[in-house]
User: Fold these one by one.
Assistant:
Number 1:
Amino acid sequence: MKWFDKIFKPLHQKVHEISHNSSSEADEELDRAIALSLSDHYDDKPAARDKGATDNDEALARALQESFISEGPSGFSSGFSSGFPFGGDGRTRRFSGAHVCARCKKTIGPGRFLSCMGGLWHPECFRCTSCNKPISGSEFSVSGNDPYHKDCYKELFHPRCDVCNLFIPPNYSGLIEYRVHPFWGQRYCPSHEDDNTPRCCSCERLETKNSKYVVLDDGRKLCLECMDSAVMDTNEGQPLYQEIINFYEGMNMKITQQIPMLLVERQALNEARAHESNGHHLTETRGLTLSEEQTVTSVFRRPRSRGFFGEMRTESMKLRRNCEVTAILVLYGLPRLLTGSILAHELMHAWLRLNGYPSHLNPVVEEGICQVMAHTWLESQIGSSSSSSHGAAKPAPHQFDTSKLREFVMHQIAMDPSPAYGDGFRIGQSAVVQFGLPRTLDHIKLTGDFPVS
């Protein structure tokens, strides 16, 4: 082991001499001492070396190197070293001569440098991918192969609430938990489901911090997009009503009687429903087909301003029964496409009564086939104008993409979880697809049920 003494003793002496020097000077001197000691030994006896000796020498040099390296910082995403590189896992790496910066590809000289993410960096070269400023702290975040300041990472990747525009807080388990609307994708804090945050009575989106909703006279709230095509009074709804009557006639299902159609407030609609003995309705009723004589308060004049500071006029009407159907009532203030789908649904109730169908059909069958007709009318509205029946010169800047609202209403019909409206629609739609609408209607008239294969 003479060669060991030749390497180790001078090196030990050299380390002792430089132990009082500064950190950077000590590291540089230590590198040079190791290299010179190994070089002197190799130059003395080149002919006597064999492969085994070479391996032993390298192993010894590596052991000596590691014995003079302190452990790097632990528990951090990154750290500083001065002289020898440390990996991101806190372990020392084998000395390899000159170090190259992972960013600028230039040699890293003696002094401080960063060792993280599998590479070595000049401190000024290790930069945030978002703000491009150096990351000087001991902690940072990573997305893919990109480093970020923790605050920059949070700003980019931490989910914000679409309602309050704040970062969604973690739950009791420390996990980010939020709710997402199944159609619109609106992402929000779970607390907004219980803190009385308003929803649009048409599209069901939550009112956001930056977009206030219009308050209708009966307490409902309407977003500005749905407000753009809202049908606000009975007179305004008549052209749409006639359009849907023509739709039925085009399907060889002519409505032979003149049936009054009124737009009403929510309270008037609920009161009318309470008097109906044969109705099968959702908790929130939007339309009703009357079969009894009643007095109904309808909306006959809309407020004069979009801000709803004008006075809404209503009038009471005594409805007399001239046929099997007395009148059709629809909730006012809903956008044209939603109002039209409600009218298509209610007109199917009327058509069944006027054409001798059983008066006490199973709700799954009756409500189901009415929803099929509402869905069919919506399908016919591809490319229709989003403006209301009275029209508008230019669409408002916040106006809906009409196709999205149409898709939403169709989605609500198709995904309805209720047995009568939801299951009834899905069974009825399947029957119509398989047998056609005329055969399906004939089978319902004869058996009171949908046909099955």
Note: The radius of gyration is 39 Å.
Number 2:
Amino acid sequence: MTDGDEKDKANCLATRGILFFGVPSQGMDISSLVAIVNGKVNENFLKGLRPDSEILRDQHWDFCKAFPYRSCKIISFYETEYSPTAKRGPNGWKMNGEDGLLVGPSSATLGSRAWEVGPNYSYAIKRNHSDMVKFSLRDHWYSIVRQILNDLVEGIESIEYIDA
């Protein structure tokens, strides 16, 4: 890591794992949302999430530079079921439009650290974007995510965290 102060660097070095759930690191389908934010404050934010976004590209590379070491494991989860998109009706905007895959596997998986290839680094969750992190105790995916978290902290006796 080249940017940031000493606290930032220490916190990055202390990070043992990051789990991403449907994070659009290479963009997402914003087509149904553009009309909702047209001319509003968050329009630029939304446009920053499109697949050809320079902002996302820069953030992606900055993130990879911040975590260039193998001691931090990055695991990505991506949805496989379609989500309803936004549609304008007589009572305003609702998420009841045509179904679509909001964040595809290629965008939801980080894919820039050469050693993180294979089934232990990316998981397809049979859920839509909104439901992929809604777990119950008896949920199959709860067990998998819990085991991944346990594996990440196994063997760590102490980590010194730096206050922000």
Note: Residues 17-153 form one domain.
Number 3:
Amino acid sequence: MSDDPSLPTVLSATTLSNGFLGKLIEICFVTADHRRTMEGLVRLGIGPWRVYTFDSATVTGRTYRGADADYAIKVCFADVGDLAVEIMEPLYGPSIFQEFLDAHGEGIQHVAFDCEERPWEQRAAEFERRGFPLVQSGRFMDANAFAFFDTEAATGTTFETYSIPTGFVWPEPEEWYPAPPPAGQAPPVREQRH
């Protein structure tokens, strides 16, 4: 037990008094070649993959380090139980994903948490209050908000939160890899209230 009053209280074997992140919901690999990375993960039994492009046609409110930004990312999703596995390949424009590739090469770049499904504004404010400013954000289909915070220096990785509104319907992906699920079997619906 620590006598340091600046440290949170341990409430249980899995809980601290200052917890707010909630459930781990996603892990993301950043790559220079999304197809090669999907192929490798499929060989490990992870898939099928849904492939989208996040750009000016699909994402509103795109920001990078506090300013409006024009960026595009190839984004691929597969589900492993309750966890989303994501692949991101930066296509153009400024992004923390390209920064990661330049500094570290390919690998796990971020993890995402549901932040106990707190209202969207409270999530960003809580990260900021703890000293982790917003570094990249946007709204896929003008509905699914996502935000990344500057946690890498403190934790070794970037933390994200996103909010998929109740009733949000994902558009059909640009492609399924290696193939779509059998007819009548839709992918899991990930919903989070904002």
Note: The domain at 21-165 is CATH 3.10.180.10 (2,3-Dihydroxybiphenyl 1,2-Dioxygenase; domain 1).
Number 4:
Amino acid sequence: MLTSRRLTRRGAEPGVAVDIALWAVVFGIIVARLYHVFTHPGDYFGEGKNLWAILFIWEGGNAIFGSLIGGAIGAYIGCRITGVRFWTFADALAPGMLLAQAIGRLGNWFNHELFGQPTNLPWGLEIESSNPAFPVGLADGTLFHPTFLYEILWNVFGAVLLLLIEREWRLQWGKLFALYLIWYGLGRIWFESIRVDPSQIFFGLRVNVEAAILAVLIGIVIFVVQRRRHPGVEPGPYVPGREWGRDDQVESRYTAEDFERPGDDDDQESAEVPATSSASPRSGSTRL
């Protein structure tokens, strides 16, 4: 809803954000699952493993960084189909993405999963020892860092921050989305570093820590490159030739002028609509 409103305020057709999101969500789910499978190969490959479990998405296992990759691919396809500039959509999406990710983290609370290291802080989370994710060797009643709560707060604050930054500096051409990648990546570097759930380790770091570092670097590159390439304001939300509401996109053979209430004989004559007319729409007509 937030993305649609922001995109419409930039001049895009109302509802076009949903058309793009349909592609983004489908690709996001697929690649999120593939990312999880290939970063947790021991759960799906090897002796005694059920390869079909790859398809059992209802049993959990979706990676946010995979969904970002797949979602970007789907959004690009959706933008190509609708004619919306990809970077315009990305900027409109950025604050809403953080809010959506904050909402999504509530699922970790209900499932009591993806928590952090033991802590004595008063807001520590108590996990039942019967939980499969409970670390071996720890006593009942041990409190853990609620990393999903940290991420919820980080994301909500980030969404507000992006909106304030955009209002002050009017960032476009993907620059606001670049700040989203930087902000989210910085937070995930810390959250992932204190989590205790199993993860692949490469070069001494959890794979999602490395993915978060990569997100920050990509965000910096996008911001620097787009600032140099596009220092000005976007001409509009659509690529040239695909603008919404153009006169040459009129589908009706009649125009608003054909249905004006006649005021005199001359107007009556001009207002009559020929039953077999094949004339093209008049210049400057509105779409019916």
Note: The first strand starts at residue 125 and ends at 126.
